[in-house]
Every structure is written in C-alpha cells, then in structure tokens.
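Review form for a predicted model. The reviewer records the input and the model, then writes brief findings.
Reviewer: anonymous (R2)
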Amino acid sequence: PISTTSGKLEGIPWCYKANPVVAGYKLTSFAATNYGFTGNLALAQGLSEFGPDIQSLRIDVYIETNTRLHVKITDPSNARWEVPNIVKTPIPSNKASNPQYKFTVVDYPFGFAV
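Model under review:
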C-alpha cells in the first residue's frame, strides 16, 4: 500500500521516479527490410540523470528464425565496443517466413515489446 506522510510517499522504492526527468527517445523512422525492420531514434528534450546522451540511435530488428529475433540498438555515428557474438548467429539476408511472435513498437516514449 502507498501512503503519504509529511508529503513523502511511503512504501515506494527509492529508485522510483514519479515524474521522470529523463525524456528518453522518440522513434523518428521505422521501415520494413528484407531481414526485419530498421529505424532511427532521436533523443527527446529533457534532462539526463546519467551524463551526456547519444543524440541519434539506430535500431535494427532481425527476424532470424520463426522462434528467435535479434534487436540491436547502436550509435550510427560512432563505433563502440560491443559484446562479442559468441553464439555466432549469422545475420540473415531474409526474415523468417512464419514467426511465432509479434514485434511491436511505441514511437514516444520509445519502447518495444515481443
């Protein structure tokens, strides 16, 4: 249960932000490709709690098999270290024909669900 005492919320973790100061990202473009989808994200106006944010990001959604997809969000302007692909899944040239999942996106604030 949530209750207030002296204007403070009790029963809520310290990390919860009722009015977030971080605006997040906005999906500015999103299109189907041979392998799935690709899109661009732009930093929305707002303050950052964690230091300088990347202004533009790219999202690629690879529909690899009927039971597996790969979502990759990168900085298209600057190369950065990435976790090595130790599983060695090949990047498909064509998306799976009959995926058993649905990929949906929300433009703003940006989010996705599988």
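Findings: Residues 1-7 have pLDDT under 50 and may be disordered.
Further findings: The CA atoms of residues 9 and 87 lie 45 Å apart.
Recommendation: see findings above.
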